[in-house]
Every structure is written in C-alpha cells, then in structure tokens.
Amino acid sequence: MLYEHLGINEKGHLTIGGLDAVDLAAEFGAPLYVLDEDRVRANCRRYTQAMGQYMPAGSQPLFAGKALCFKGLYPVLKEEGMGADVVSPGEIYTALAGGFPPEQLYFHGNNKTDEDIQYALDQGVGHFIVDNPLELAQLNHFAGARGRRQKVLLRVTPGIDPHTLQAINTGRIDCQFGVPIETGQAAAFVAEALTMEHLEVEGFHSHIGSQIFEAEPFCDAVDILLNFAQDLREKLGFTVQVLNLGGGFGVRYQESDPQVDIPGNIRALAEHLETGCAAKGYPLPRILLEPGRSIVADAGVTLYQVGGVKTIQGYRSYVTVNGGMTDNPRYALYQSPYTVLPADRMDDPADFLCSVAGRCCESGDLIQENIHLPQMQRGDLLAVLTTGAYNFTMASNYNRLCRPALVMLREGKARLAVRRQTFEDLTACEL
Ligand code: LLP
C-alpha cells in the first residue's frame, strides 16, 4: 500500500482511515472525494513540529488553498496552527466563512484587481504578497485611503529550475510571477516598496516549483535570497525579517516515487539558513513555507463506479468510470501518474491490462493508461489514490456533470463536508 492509512479488510475491500470504501460509496454515492482528516492533521504536524523545532521562532507553514479549498477544511488548519496562502477573493471568502482568522491569511496573485485589493484590505488580511510594482502602488493607495499600514512580502524570482514539470514550475526567471533578481529589477522593486508610506515590507517570497523531493533546490533558493538580502542591506539599510520560501514538497503518486522526508528536509533547510546567515553576519529571518500538495494530496482518495469494460481487439481495453476529467483533470493536463486500485476486490489477481477512461465526450478524458487491475464488471468500485490536492479545486462541470460530494473521515467516522451538486446547482446562475 502506498500509505499507512490505507488497508484491506476481511471482505477484500479497500479501507481508508479504517473505513470500508465500498460502504462509503454506498452511503454517499460515487464519484466521491474522500479526505482522511486525521492524515491531513498528521501532515500539518510534520510541518508545524519540524519548523517549531528547527527554525527561528515565529516560523510557520501556510497551507496553499489552491491545492484544496472548502469551508470545512479551515477549522482543521486553524486548530493545527497553520496559516493560509490564498490567491483570490473567493479563497479569502471561503477561509473566512470557515472561521479562519484574517490576520493569518497571506494574499497572493499576479493580477490582483482593484476590487480584490480593496476586498482583502476590508477583510483585514494579514499580509499581501505583492507580485509587481504596479500592484505595489495600487495597494499603497488603497491602504492609505483606509488609514492603514499594510504588511507585505515582495515576490521575487531567484531563477531556480528544480527539474520539475515545465507547466508547474514558477521559480524560473521567464515566468509571469514575481520580479527577477538576476536582471536587477527585484532590487528596484524593493527600493520602491520601501518608499511606500502605507506599506510595511517584512521580507521576500519565492516559489521555485512543485513536486520537489529534496531540500537542495530550496537551499539554492536560500543562497540566492540571502545574497540578494545582504546586497540590499548594504545599499538600502533594509533587513529582512521574513523569508517565505513557497510550496513545492512532493508526494508519492505511485510506489516508484521516492518517500519525502519533510522533517528531515526542514531541518536541512534550517541548518543551511543558519550557516548562510552566520557566514554573512545576517540576522536570522523567520521562515514561512507554503505547502499545498504535501498537506492534502495523500489524504485524498476518489471513488468511482465502473460502468463498462470495452476491449478494442488488437489494441487495448478501456474501463470506464462515472467521473473523469471533470473531477480530476490532471492526467488530461499533465499526464500525471496515479495509483488506481480495485476497491471492492483488492485480493483478486491484477491480471487485466487496461486504461481507465472518464465519461466525458472527449478522447483525452483518461484517468490512467496501461495499468493492471483484476477483470472488471459493471458496478465495481475503483479508487484513485493521492487525489486530495488539485482535484476538487480544478474540477469543472464539463458536459454538465455534477461535481462529486466530499466526505471527511475522522477517528473512524465519516461526515459529509461538501454535498454533491444537483441539476438545480447547474442552472443556479442562469437567468
Ligand atoms: N505557493 C505558491 C506561490 C504556489 O504557486 C504554489 C503552487 C504553492 C505555494 C503550493 O505548491 P505545492 O506545495 O502544492 O506544490 N495544478 C498543478 C499545481 C500547480 C501549483 C502552482 N503553485 C498540479 O495539479 O500539479
């Protein structure tokens, strides 16, 4: 099994957090997003404990809501001592509706509209992560109009390629996020920010990419950021209090993916930072990290009912499920690997080579290709693992399919956190 919160019971059914997947599908329907809250909490603690132990006081993990965002998640994050990274007024609204304290929010985005900026200010969002000089001026203006001094971090790009997928790599210089250090533009950006009367610059933000398994690329980013900070300290007399190193630690989608030692990586990063600061005589900044995937991905499982099995003689076999790219577009978009399990017949020999297709009218609607499952029948239950991140949040209503429900599991009990959409929901905005 990919994770220890998954198991097989005496009926040969998959269990998630000790609960029978077949029972969950029978009670809540399929397709179904299942989220093991105990696992989410354990993942949060890997960050809070290691950061508390190894990093300067005040260091904190911020959960990146782009990975998963619904009201019921935010009380969990709050209880676990997480801050939160939000990228839109919709995410801010959701976090606050879930009772999350606004001062613990960090507002991201490379194109915050005037409405977004004003909304976030009026909600009392703790920090803005300012992406570019135009936003700086606008935020200064709106903060001033409210007689406020807004705390900000400035997003810079250190120009690191952590050898990850091009489409989800944002640390390189040539990208639409942040201001590059190498070209000298970031230095001008900081100098300008320091002149803004209504902004309090606490430090920098950088995000180098996703699915990173080692501490090394983050250490490289720290080196670049510290050199940059040192240079600015000499030139501008500005000392960084906070370094936000973004998200990006990887998760295991398949057995062949490496295990990620999050506490070990945090410790390595902390030691690297300490050595770097000591060598420069630079005061240790607080560290923020923005994990998304590594908090929720492995806590999530999607359950689908099998509708049909089709063998194209001489070519291949398709198993079709009652969801697909509408609830999980990641294979269609990135050819992302997944582990697919036969949730109702875990003990049967997996001797059937097939591809799992969704139900949309689109040949690219695939969940996984060329995998081994037992012989499938209509009505069987398939489980796709590691779907807690970037599935629910990237879902669509293509082909007017209703979005699945989401259930949260805690201490052996399941509760509905997001109900399944209805046909009325589909036309709710239509006049
Ligand atoms: N902070 C910033 C500024 C980010 O841009 C991201 C992800 C994160 C934190 C969280 O990174 P994580 O820990 O989840 O890797 N839709 C793609 C992922 C796009 C990620 C973009 N930014 C996917 O499905 O793989």
Task: Name the features.
binds ligand LLP, 21 strands, nine-stranded mixed sheet, 431 residues, 24% strand, alpha/beta, single chain, globular
Chart the SSEs and their pairings.
Blueprint: E1 6-8, E2 14-16, E3 19-20, H1 21-28, E4 32-36, H2 37-54, E5 60-64, H3 73-79, E6 83-86, H4 89-97, E7 105-107, H5 114-123, E8 127-130, H6 133-145, E9 150-157, E10 179-180, H7 185-194, E11 199-205, H8 216-236, E12 242-244, H9 262-280, E13 286-289, H10 293-296, E14 300-311, E15 317-321, H11 330-334, E16 340-342, E17 352-357, E18 366-373, E19 381-385, E20 405-410, E21 413-418, H12 423-427
Parallel strand pairs: 4-20, 5-6, 5-13, 6-7, 7-8, 8-9, 9-10, 9-11, 11-12, 12-13, 15-17
Antiparallel strand pairs: 1-2, 2-3, 4-14, 14-15, 14-19, 16-19, 17-18, 20-21
The structure holds ligand LLP.
Structure summarized in a few sentences:
This protein has 431 residues and is an alpha/beta fold. The chain has helices spanning 21-28, 37-54, 73-79, 89-97, 114-123, 133-145, 185-194, 216-236, 262-280, 293-296, 330-334, 423-427, and strands spanning 6-8, 14-16, 19-20, 32-36, 60-64, 83-86, 105-107, 127-130, 150-157, 179-180, 199-205, 242-244, 286-289, 300-311, 317-321, 340-342, 352-357, 366-373, 381-385, 405-410, 413-418.
